[in-house]
Design goal:
globular, 4 helices, alpha+beta, 141 residues, Beta-Lactamase
Length: 141
């Protein structure tokens, strides 16, 4: 697990990469009040950063574990069903939508999770999530 150690070291709270990440996550939430959570974790379930409403803020570890697990299950399902790699997993719930998307952050594979309330159309949530992925994957050390 040397990659994980390197990633943790690179994610110092004051690092330019971490500041850029938090800035983009916060911008998505500020511009879209329907977005109640934006979380980035490693593919093996370690939290990197989470921006959410207060009721969800103390569950960062759970969200990271859940996000990485759902992403891995989706990838495995797509592979087993001969559909290639899974890019995005969408869970439609009664109160909103959850999007789990694979991305890279400072060169390491990660999972971005975005949770939006029903007031935001799924297509809009998907579009804005994909846009955020492009920004996050461009962040360098």
């Amino acid at each position: 697990m040397p990659d994980m150690t390197m990633l943790k070291e690179k994610l110092d709270e004051k690092s330019p990469a971490k500041i850029a990440l938090l800035s983009h996550m916060k911008a998505l939430c500020d511009a879209n009040r329907e977005v109640i959570l934006v979380s980035l974790c490693t593919t093996d379930g370690f939290p990197i950063s989470c921006f959410s409403i207060s009721e969800l803020s103390n569950q960062t570890d759970k969200f990271a574990a859940m996000s990485s697990t759902l992403s891995a299950l989706s990838d495995s399902s797509a592979s087993q069903m001969k559909q290639g790699k899974c890019d995005i997993t969408i869970v439609e719930a009664t109160a909103g939508n959850m999007l789990f998307v694979k991305t890279d952050y400072i060169g390491k594979p990660c999972v971005l999770t975005v949770v939006a309330q029903n007031k935001m159309a799924l297509a809009e949530a998907r579009y804005k999530t994909k846009k955020l992925i492009g920004v996050i994957s461009a962040i360098t050390e």
